[in-house]
Amino acid sequence: LKGWFEGLKLGWIGDGNNVCNSAILASALVGMEIVVATPPGYEPDRGVIDRAIELGGKLTLTDDPEEAANGADILYTDVWVSMGDEDERDRRMRDFSGYRIDEKLIELSDDRSIIMHCLPAHRGEEITDGVIEGPRSVVFHQAENRLHAQKALLLKLLG
């Protein structure tokens, strides 16, 4: 990557869920552009969008995954069916069918892009096996870093 957050482009592809909302706010705080591609009706929280704009964030909302992936330094996704939404599984699988991070989308991203997912992943749904196991994936490093952050938080709270 370029080494700094400013000037980076994060392409979020999938559900405008809590992880997406956090990515939007984090991007605004560090000066990173974010392009969020969701199916119609699955957009991020309006309050989060408004707050990111207030913070000076560079945010684009689209329903086109290729727009989000085009030139992105980071491609990020999460599950299509979150806990508590299991009764919506069939509908969500139809609605999100074109929002999978696959090799085709990676080809549109920057040559040195990385792939992120907060896990657990449903392989073959929001991300392909080849992508999550591929050379650009930092998914498992991301999970390891989360472990250390959680340990530090527990130490602070209980120590």
From TrEMBL:
Keywords: Transferase. The keyword Transferase applies. Residues 6-155 form the Aspartate/ornithine carbamoyltransferase Asp/Orn-binding domain. Its EC number is 2.1.3.3. It catalyses: carbamoyl phosphate + L-ornithine = L-citrulline + phosphate + H(+). SUPFAM superfamilies: Aspartate/ornithine carbamoyltransferase. Pfam families: OTCace. InterPro entries: Asp/Orn_carbamoylTrfase, Asp/Orn_carbamoylTrfase_sf, Asp_carbamoyltransf_Asp/Orn-bd, Orn/put_carbamltrans. It is an enzyme of class 2 (transferase). It comes from the Archaea. GO terms for biological process: citrulline biosynthetic process; L-arginine biosynthetic process via ornithine. One of its GO terms (molecular function) is ornithine carbamoyltransferase activity. Belongs to the aspartate/ornithine carbamoyltransferase superfamily. This is Ornithine carbamoyltransferase.
